[in-house]
Amino acid sequence: MVFTRIFKRDATKEGAQLLYLALATQARDPYFYAVAGVPDSLDGRFDAVALHAFLVLNRLKRDPDLRAAALAQNLVDFFVADMDRSVRELGVGDMGVARRVKQMAQALYGRAAAYDQALVAADDALLTTALARNLYGTRENVPPGEVALVARYVRAAAAALAVQPLDALVGGQIVFPPPAGAAA
Q: pLDDT by residue (tens digit) across 7-65?
C-alpha cells in the first residue's frame, strides 16, 4: 500500500506544469508588448506572467474540488521554480537567489490580491489602477487606452477560465482568449 503511494502518478503536478507553460506562453504574446504597451523588459515580462498566473489561480480557488487546491499549489511551485531558474540565469549568486525569489513570490501574492479585489468591482477603475501600478509600473505616462485594452482582456480571460472544466485544467488543458480579441 505505501509502496504504491510512493510511485503514484500526481496528475495535478503534471497538469500544473502544462498550465504554467501555457500561461507563460500566453504572457509572451507580442500583442501585450507591441499593442498594449506592456514594458518589454524583465519587470514587464515578470508582471505579464504574474498576471496570467493570477488568472489561473483565481479560477482554481473558486473550485471546491480538492484537486483544484492541489493544482494551484503545484502551479505556484512551478512559478517559484521558474523564477529561481530565471534569477540564476541572470547571474545572481546562490546567496541572493532565495531573497530575490522570495520577493518575486511576495509580488505574485500582492498582485493577486489587488487583481482579485479589482475583478469583483462593477467597473474597471480598480482594475486599471492595479494594472497601471503593477503591469505598467516601470513606465511613466501610460496612455489610459493601453491599460484599458489589458483590463478588457483580463475580464475576458477570467470569464473564459471560469467556464473551463476542472478535469481539463487538471489535464493541463487551458484556453486563453486571444488578447487582440479583447480589444473590440
A: 555 778 999 999 999 999 999 999 999 999 999 988 899 899 999 999 999 999 999 99
Transcribe 67-112 into DSSP letters.
Answer: HHHHHHHHHHHHHHHHHHHHHHHTT--HHHHHHHHHHHHHHHHHHH
Q: How far apart are CA 128 and CA 34, in angstroms?
A: 19
Distance CA 163, CA 72 (A): 17
pTM: 0.88
Tell me the backbone φ, ψ of residue 77, rounded to 5 degrees: -60, -40
Q: Which of 173, 161, 13, 11 is closest to 77 using CA atoms?
A: 13
Residue written as cell 505574485?
108
